[in-house]
Amino acid sequence: MTAPRLRASDGDVVVGIGEMAVGRLADEVLVTYALGSCLGVAVYDAVARVGGLLHAMLPTSTLDPDKAARNPHLFVDTGVPALFRACYAAGAAKQRMIVRVAGGARLSGRADEDQFQIGKRNILTLRKLLWKNGVMVQSEDVGGEAISRTIALHIGTGELRMRRNGADTCL
């Protein structure tokens, strides 16, 4: 039996930049496209069969508090807590949550040319936030040179499929 391929069909829930979605239906797939310096954070509780996906663009809400108040999902430091709270409200439990992450690439090919280091700062902000709250990342595909990643969380199985450089893998 082969693993299901990353899919993009009419039934998928597309999570855009600065958006978040939570799913509870077995046939639901939460998908986010073109993760460059942005972070895609996927969480899943296998017992409750609840999963969530966040596409955060910037590390900290202190960069623009007004924008963060309007849309906390744009920022790692406000979007991740919102994602966990939404999953808890749907029946997930912190101790059962599996966290997987993709994105955080450099915007330019060379590290010394990436002046703002948004991808790196997104990753560091996420790691600090999770560590502070006693949450570990199970798997990740982060960093690297201007890489575009697409991830799809299959709610029925908890599988997180990733497409990177034309290849599909399970994260």
Assembly level: single chain
Count of DSSP-assigned helices:
3
Judging from the principal axes of the Cα atoms, what is the shape?
A: globular
- Beta-strand percent range: 25-35%
Largest sheet, if any?
5 strands, mixed
In total, the number of domains comes to 1
Q: Show unreliable segments.
A: 1-7
- Look at the helices and sheets and give the structural class: alpha+beta
Beta-strand segment tally: 10
CATH topology: 60s Ribosomal Protein L30, Chain: A
CATH architecture: 2-Layer Sandwich
CATH C-level: Alpha Beta
Distance between the termini: 18 Å
Helix percent reads 10-25%
Mean pLDDT: 90
What's the Cα radius of gyration?
15 Å
Element order: H for helix, E for strand: EEEEEHHEHEEEE
Question: Biggest sheet, strands in spatial order?
Answer: 1-3-8-9-10
Any key phrases for this structure?
171 residues; alpha+beta; 60s Ribosomal Protein L30, Chain: A; 5-stranded mixed sheet; 10 strands; globular
Characterize the structure shown:
The protein has 171 residues and is of the alpha+beta class. It has a single domain, classed as 60s Ribosomal Protein L30, Chain: A. 20% of the residues lie in helices and 33% in strands. Strands 1-3-8-9-10 form a five-stranded mixed beta sheet, with no helix packed on it. A five-stranded mixed beta sheet has the order 2-5-4-6-7, with helices on one face. Strand 6, helix 3 and strand 7 form a beta-alpha-beta unit. The two termini are 18 Å apart.
